[in-house]
Write a structure and sequence with these properties.
The protein has about 425 residues and is α/β, with parallel strands linked by helices. It folds into 2 domains: about 150 residues, P-loop containing nucleotide triphosphate hydrolases (Rossmann fold, 3-Layer(aba) Sandwich), CATH 3.40.50.300; about 220 residues, no CATH class. About 50% of the residues lie in helices and about 15% in strands. The protein has 19 helices and 14 strands. The strands form 3 sheets. It has a 6-stranded mixed sheet, with helices on both faces. A 5-stranded parallel sheet has the order 2-3-4-1-5, sandwiched between helices. Helix 9 crosses helix 16. The radius of gyration is 23 Å and the shape is globular.
């Protein structure tokens, strides 16, 4: 790569980065301070267009005082950039902006072997903050070359609180809500379920942001990266999954239903989809790792707005969307999340062993049959587990406390739970 063309690209990138719209402040920004000042490489991973570049700009403004270089490796002018070009890159950055100690590398996974340069300069005392859209590649590279030198941060689409800030809505005190406030929050939560939290999709509703994003992940992040000869099977599997979020899936049944070759093919494709941040797979809680592996999984989407745009007629299935939103919020806070199935076959949506918490999601509890079904499952699981202390049923709007078998179950509206967790 020639120095003049590299210098031109880097100068334009810097100007665009400094003029970038910082958007709404992300929830994670305040908690990143310790990570930013720590010497380890900070690795920010997440779906394409979820706001990683904007978060970098917020980090730079809040913490770095212009003492940084910025390079975007998604720029088509750097498409042929190789690991051996990093010394020229560093030299060019110094010539343009002077000597600085912090590098911001955006979409770093586009440069094979990037971690070698990062490790060498990190050992010389430089700080790196890098972003990437492929969890698998980053974890492999971090594991092989940057062991003990990196801290990983996950960035998700907007939370409900971030969604409200984006809409310029001030969230009220969820502990003391008027009837009017409850009605408004219920509407905002329903809109959040429908439209999701991908920033550009909310900002430019007239554009097909979700479809473009979805296609980019399938073709650029998966088919190209994993050298798939055909995308037909991948597309069929992905469409089936996004049309069946919050449902149980079986690798064997998927193989039979979609006629996609072997179970190993199904597993590999789902791994690719997970690593590219389109889906999450939830295991059944079991003491045996083998039982966890062979049991049916539950599938969740990275964003309910994406699900509604791409999946088959999903917008009416509000209970499934609510469950997906609950999973995403839990995923940000807890490392170990499971679904629970009792020996009688009763299922509870989420079990958090660390907090001894069971969470059930039900759109309504407005019939005796529904309330009996949901409370029966959570009570049976609690009695079987023997140590759960927090029992929660999340609904669209109902709020109360139920006492059964000397157990208290808290019923809470989704909007309140999202504001309080």
């Amino acid at each position: 790569m020639s120095e003049p063309s590299l210098a031109s690209a880097l100068k334009e990138q810097h100007q665009a980065f400094m003029a970038r719209d910082h958007g709404i402040q992300r929830d994670i920004l305040e908690t990143l301070k310790k990570t930013i000042i720590a010497p380890q490489v900070t690795v920010i991973t997440g779906l394409r267009r979820v706001g990683k570049s904007t978060l970098l700009a917020q980090i730079a403004k809040k913490y770095l005082k212009n003492n940084f270089y910025f390079v975007n490796f998604e720029d088509e002018r750097l498409i042929n950039f190789q690991v051996q070009d990093f010394d020229l890159l560093h030299e060019t950055l110094i010539s343009l902006f002077g000597k600085k100690k912090i590098f911001l590398f955006d979409e770093i996974q586009n440069v094979p072997g990037w971690e070698r340069f990062v490790r060498r300069l990190h050992d010389q005392g430089y700080k790196f903050i890098v972003t990437g859209s492929n969890a698998s590649l980053l974890s492999q590279e971090l594991g092989t070359r940057l062991t003990g030198r990196s801290i990983r941060v996950e960035l998700f689409p907007f939370s409900f609180q971030e969604y409200l800030r984006f809409k310029k809505i001030k969230a009220p005190n969820s502990k003391v809500l008027t009837t009017k406030q409850r009605g408004h929050l219920r509407k905002y939560a329903n809109d959040y379920l429908l439209f999701g939290g991908i920033p550009d999709a909310l900002k430019y509703k007239q554009l097909e942001i979700h479809k473009t994003l979805y296609d980019d992940v399938l073709y650029r992040d998966i088919a190209t990266r994993y050298k798939l000869d055909s995308t037909k099977n991948l597309k069929e599997l992905s469409f089936y999954l996004i049309s069946n979020i919050s449902n149980l899936i079986s690798f064997n049944k998927l193989k039979q239903l979609l006629k996609l070759g072997s179970v190993n093919t199904i597993k590999s494709y789902i791994d690719y989809l997970e690593n590219s941040w389109l889906f999450f797979v939830l295991n059944k809680y079991a003491y045996s790792v083998k039982e966890q592996q062979i049991a049916a999984k539950k599938i969740y989407s990275i964003d309910t707005g994406l699900t509604n745009s791409i999946g088959f007629d999903f917008s009416q299935n509000k209970g499934k969307l609510m469950e997906n939103i609950v999973y995403l919020q839990l995923r940000k806070k807890y490392q170990h999340i499971y679904y629970y199935r009792t020996v009688q076959g009763y299922e509870v949506d989420f079990f958090l062993p660390k907090d001894n918490t069971f969470i059930q999601v039900s759109q309504h509890l407005n019939s005796k049959e529904t309330q009996e079904r949901e409370t029966r499952s959570i009570i049976a699981a609690t009695q079987e587990q023997g140590k759960a202390k927090n029992l929660i049923i999340i609904t669209e709007s109902e709020k109360s406390t139920i006492t059964k078998n000397d157990l208290q179950i808290k019923i809470i509206p989704l909007y309140q739970w999202l504001l309080e967790i």
